[in-house]
Amino acid sequence: MSERRYPPALLAWSVWGLGALLYLIGFYQRVAPAVITDRLMADFALGAAALGNLSAFYFYSYVAMQIPTGIIADRWGPRRLLTVGAGVAALGTFLFAFAPTIFWANAGRLLIGASVAVAFVSMLKLATRWFRPEQFALASGVALFCGVCGGVVAGVPLRLLVESFGWRPVMVVTAIVTAALCLAIFLFVRDDPSERGYASHAPAPAAGGTHHGSVWHGLMQVLSYRNTWILVIVPIGVAGSVLTFAGLWGVPYLKQVHGLDTKTAAAITSTLLVSWALGGPILGALSERMGRRKPLYVITTVVALIGWGIVIYLPLPIWALVGVLIVSGFACGNLIIGFAFAKESVPARLMGTASGVCNMGPLMGGMFLQPGVGWILDRHWLGSTAGGARIYDAAAYQAGFSLIFGAIVLSLLLIVFARETGCKQAA
Fold it and tell me: Which CATH number among 1.20.1250.20, 3.90.1300.10, 2.60.40.3500, 3.40.50.620 corresponds to the domain 214-427?
């Protein structure tokens, strides 16, 4: 039997790239509400609490799908999972675009969150089969870059399109693009290179195969480790600060308190997302060089706490505010340290389950803090409106963002109780 060659790089990256495009769209959908807050408030007659809840419906279903996605990916394969995910995402976006009431808008966001939640795990699964093992880290880094690109598109470019055409037509086009991606994934993506006549990079299966029936038992084992609970809760404050500011409340805050126009405010929140993305791999690599997780995790969380404290409680000129946001965003990239920390805190056979559980932490940050800040804003609203959207003063935003500050304080206190792994896998 002749030895088959591995797939050419162009084919491998093209197959993987279609999965990455769904991840990009998912990130775009995650932060898109930030630049259309005024339109959503006016169209649906929303206060800040209801708007925060609308945005958070994405996170409700995304978080709920984290653990099931890994199980489904093993049974269905990434091609079917990505195809269904892109199809449901398109349906959810259509529903959001044509929503006559807030109920249907919430339902659309719920569908979007649940469907794009499959992208990251599917991308990783494709990477293990289509790329050499030493390329896996590169693929993970490119995946993060794709996500941030989606976030940047949801900034100034999205606002320009919304101002020209309205938010509903723009969302209709987004749905059409997502539907086209669904078709492309179905036609072009394959779970394994062997389906196209090439050799696979997939590791040999472990003796005894997989045991789907042990999923629940494995989950209970992962949750029995103290570090798991700590490393799920810590990103709620740290990563949640970025998702809450850049993903929803930063743009209206910069407009209403600092007097910026929407496009400039969106550019600033996009800069925060970029610094966050850069912080992840740099801090992760630095942690590896140090051979320890906890010290750098603590230091960067302290930096994030100080940075957000300055943003929230001190009057700053806009140039200084942007500088502090960049430093704070970079420090919040320490969630990458947290992912490695979590995987090393359990035996190797539980690494996948631990990763799925701990990936819920950052997303729960958006899920809790976005509506939480909105609820506090409504409690401090003085009755001002503009174009049907509520206007909140500096004191209201300071009170709302104090929730972010308090969450990071809790994160810092909890890290102290985490057990250091020394960058080594638990026995």
Answer: 1.20.1250.20
